[in-house]
Specification:
Elements: H1 2-23, E1 35-40, E2 43-44, E3 49-55, E4 64-68, E5 71-73, E6 75-79, E7 82-86, E8 94-100, E9 103-112, E10 118-123, E11 126-127, E12 132-138, E13 147-151, E14 154-155, E15 157-162, E16 165-169, E17 177-183, E18 186-195, E19 199-206, E20 216-217, E21 226-231, E22 237-241, E23 246-250, E24 255-261, E25 270-271, E26 280-285, E27 291-295, E28 300-304, E29 309-315, E30 324-325, E31 334-339, E32 345-349, E33 354-358, E34 363-368, E35 378-379, E36 388-393, E37 399-403, E38 408-412, E39 417-422, E40 432-433, E41 442-447, E42 453-457, E43 462-466, E44 471-476, E45 497-502, E46 508-512, E47 517-523
């Protein structure tokens, strides 16, 4: 029995040592270490197919790992001498490495580049505002927050986006020009989109047949010589109803109410009907809804809060030409006003033939003109105007002036340099190049976000436009023909349009002085 147990023990030991000898045999081959000879290509954008050549990769894709600067990438195919992979989307420039089992080997550097942006076409290539336009090209991505599309510099909104197609809406306030696509640091210009715009003039409130004073809706409301006009962020229109000595409010639906003032002309500050005005003319509104009014015959600049509280910002009832703060400053029939982004107010000081500036604190200075009527370009007091009526400020700090009786549009830089932007000085009518264009007592003007300037050409009974390219055209009205008629460009009639306002959608509002009406110009 002991012999049998010994034989079993001996057999087990022999089997154990036999197994050890087989696994520890130094002559058995170990797994070969992979090597990388090259990668092709060595650079490209995310998604580039990259071929890695070398040796000892094996043939089992599940055992091979590829990394781009430490970021794993999927293996498309593998042979013992070649791996096909794709540069991962979130990868960065760095070493390409291959891991097989416990062995990792580093290869050359793969350099990430930006996929070239391209535009191959737009469809359609013309249309009106809000036309749906399909832009085809390459490498747009799929992030509408990252890709930007512009129509002649105006941003468009997206309907959909793929890597090769962007469907956008032509912005309503743009004009004919190049379609540009921008992604990060790349931008590429595509074809020109031609705007086909139809202009339509309608009457928002008031009527030529009903001069007077009445609140109401549409034609039931009455005005008496509306001069200044401004529009707030909600689309409400505010009007200086000059002979009625009131500030009127017109909703987008044409409902007219009295915002401030009463039939009694005067100088009183107060709230709503308790306040008094004395032939108010220019009006402007800031982003917070505060207004300033040029109260022309009182020689005051008034401020009105959104709650209709009226106070005096600057000026003195005694006409004069004196800089100062508050009531120590003097104006002489102030006409147009404008507010810049910093809250400063600019005043066309009509009978002083000058442009004045009022700070938020009420400090008045003269930025151009010297109190003498004339026509001279120059800096500050060296420049001359002749009864400037309208004034407006752009986002870059430039001031534009409707130089009424010089029949010119003037520009004042932030350093006070005055030049002539348009008009040859001759009373008359002519479209074309700015230098040879003619106006007839231009009374107000506004500049849009693209830098185009719209002018109330009072004596021609027209609304004119000065493009950023320096071309003057007629937007609405028939030159030399007064009347009261709604319709398109060649049909609509105005009668001495005095004031202009622009809303965020590019609509123009007109204080149609002798038609006793508020008109609206829309573009479709």
């Amino acid at each position: 029995m002991k012999i049998i147990h010994f034989l079993f023990f001996l057999t087990g030991m022999l089997l154990f040592f036999a197994g050890c000898k087989k696994s520890d045999n130094p002559g058995d081959p170990a797994p070969a270490t992979p090597t990388i000879a090259s990668i092709t290509p060595a650079s490209g954008p995310a998604g580039t197919t990259v071929t890695i050549t070398g040796n000892n990769f094996g043939t089992d894709a599940s055992t091979v790992k590829v990394f781009f600067n430490g970021l794993a990438s999927g293996v498309q195919s593998v042979s013992n001498t070649q791996i096909t992979t794709v540069a991962p989307a979130a990868g960065t420039t760095g070493i390409v490495s291959v891991k097989l089992g416990n062995n990792t080997v580093n290869g050359p550097v793969f350099t990430y580049t930006v996929a070239p942006l391209s535009v191959t076409g737009i469809t359609p290539s013309s249309g009106g505002p809000k036309t749906v336009v399909t832009i085809t090209g390459n490498n747009f991505g799929t992030d509408t927050a990252a890709l930007k599309v512009f129509f002649n510099g105006v941003p468009a909104s997206f309907q959909s986006l793929t890597n090769i197609q962007a469907v956008v809406i032509a912005p309503p306030n743009a004009s004919t020009g190049t379609v540009k696509v921008q992604l990060g640091s790349q931008s590429v210009n595509g074809p020109i989109f031609t705007y086909i715009v139809s202009t339509m003039v309608t009457t928002l409130a008031g009527s030529r047949d009903h001069q007077g004073f009445a609140d109401g809706t549409g034609a039931a409301a009455q005005f008496n010589s509306p001069v200044g006009i401004a529009v707030d962020a909600q689309g409400n229109v505010f009007v200086t109803d000059e002979v009625n000595q009131r500030i009127r409010k017109v909703t987008p639906a044409g409902v007219v109410t009295t915002f401030a003032g009463s039939a009694q002309q005067g100088l009183n500050d107060g709230t709503g009907a308790a306040a008094q005005f004395y032939y108010p003319e220019g009006i402007a509104i800031d982003a917070a809804g505060n207004m300033v009014v040029a109260d022309s015959r009182s020689n005051l600049i008034r401020k009105i809060t959104p709650a209709a509280v009226v106070t005096t910002l600057a000026g003195n009832i005694i006409p004069g030409f004196i800089d100062g703060t508050g009531n120590t400053a003097h104006f002489n029939s102030p006409a147009g006003v404008s507010i810049d982004a910093a809250g400063n107010t600019y005043v066309a000081d009509d009978n002083n033939h000058s442009i004045r500036k009022i700070t938020v604190a009420g400090a008045v200075t003269t930025i151009a003109g010297n109190g003498l009527a004339g026509y001279t370009d120059g800096t500050g007091g060296a420049a001359q105007f002749r009864f400037p009526f309208g004034v407006t400020a752009d986002a870059q700090g430039n001031i534009y002036v409707a130089d009424d009786q010089n029949n010119r549009i003037r520009k004042i830089t932030s350093t006070g340099v005055v030049t002539t932007l348009a008009g040859d000085g001759t009373f008359g009518y002519a479209d074309g190049a700015a230098a040879t264009a003619r106006f007839a007592f231009p009374s107000d003007l506004k500049v849009d976000a693209q830098g185009n300037i719209f002018v109330a050409d009072r004596g021609n009974h027209c609304i004119r436009k000065i493009s950023t390219a320096g071309q003057v055209s007629t937007v609405a009205g028939v030159p030399g023909q007064s009347g009261f008629l709604d319709g398109g460009t060649g049909t609509a009639r105005f009668y001495q349009p005095y004031g202009l306002a622009l809303d965020a959608q590019g609509n123009i509002y007109v204080a149609d002085y002798l038609n006793f009406a508020i008109r609206k110009i829309s573009f479709q």
